[in-house]
């Protein structure tokens, strides 16, 4: 199964993707994790991405698409994948569609985790205390939420128009939300 997981910062994409990959037997591809690994490794791409991420802006479409294409060509996506954090604007949604058509691996479903802003801010503040992620500062979080509303929310319409969008209530326990996503997909844990 090939899924796109959509949702605002703090909506639980990473948390749910880690559980869904076990349940569905697919790989989890997070562009945020790939970018953070590049930053940590100090690669030229990481050096370019770091300041952009710390401002809460989007890294350039070309860089992220190239990185994603390399990851999809790693040879482990035969049983499917969950994309977390991609696509993040309409241009990325179109580029992904074209890339996956070329690879013969189109998306089956897009799942949107619905969470209101107040709870998003609360969850990220909790993670800021626990983990100190460099883009979890109050100012950057405000910007990430603005970028989400302005640039990423239109991607929801892209998948709705394609008839592949599933909306799932992202409020509640982590376990309950996984159950809801699997039910929406018409499947259960392996
Ligand atoms: P990315 O890493 O994708 O971050 P994000 O979308 O802002 O999402 P988060 O990681 O904050 O939240 P999440 O939805 O994964 O929630 P999580 O499970 O962690 O991107 C970071 C940056 O990289 C971007 O700002 C951009 O600069 C760049 N980037 C990435 N992709 C890009 C792209 N395609 N194009 C351009 N730039 C890109 O949960 C959050 C917290 O809540 C955790 O502490 C978790 O434990 C907790 N939590 C989760 N679920 C629950 C629950 N049910 N109840 C209580 N707590 C919960």
Question: What features would you describe in this structure?
Answer:
By secondary structure, this protein is an alpha/beta fold. The chain is built from eight helices and five strands. It has helices spanning 13-24, 31-41, 44-55, 61-72, 90-103, 117-131, 138-161, 174-184; strands at 2-6, 27-30, 81-84, 109-114, 165-169. Strands 2-3-1-4-5 form a five-stranded parallel β-sheet, sandwiched between helices. The longest helix has 24 residues, at 138-161. The radius of gyration is 16 Å and the shape is globular. It starts with a strand and ends in a 6-residue tail after the last helix. The mean pLDDT is 96. The structure holds BIS(adenosine)-5'-pentaphosphate. Residues 7, 9-15, 31-32, 35, 52-53, 56-59, 64, 85-86, 88, 92, 123-124, 126-127, 135, 144, 173-174, 177 line the site of BIS(adenosine)-5'-pentaphosphate.
Keywords:
190 residues, alpha/beta, 5-stranded parallel beta sheet, 13% strand, globular, binds BIS(adenosine)-5'-pentaphosphate
Structure summarized in a few sentences:
With 190 residues, the protein is of the alpha/beta class.
Topology:
Layout: E1 2-6, H1 13-24, E2 27-30, H2 31-41, H3 44-55, H4 61-72, E3 81-84, H5 90-103, E4 109-114, H6 117-131, H7 138-161, E5 165-169, H8 174-184
Helix pairs in contact: 1-8, 2-3
Strand count, sense and barrel status of the largest sheet are: 5 strands, parallel
Enumerate how many helices there are, as a single number.
Answer: 8
What percent strand?
5-15%
User: What is the H/E order?
Assistant: EHEHHHEHEHHEH
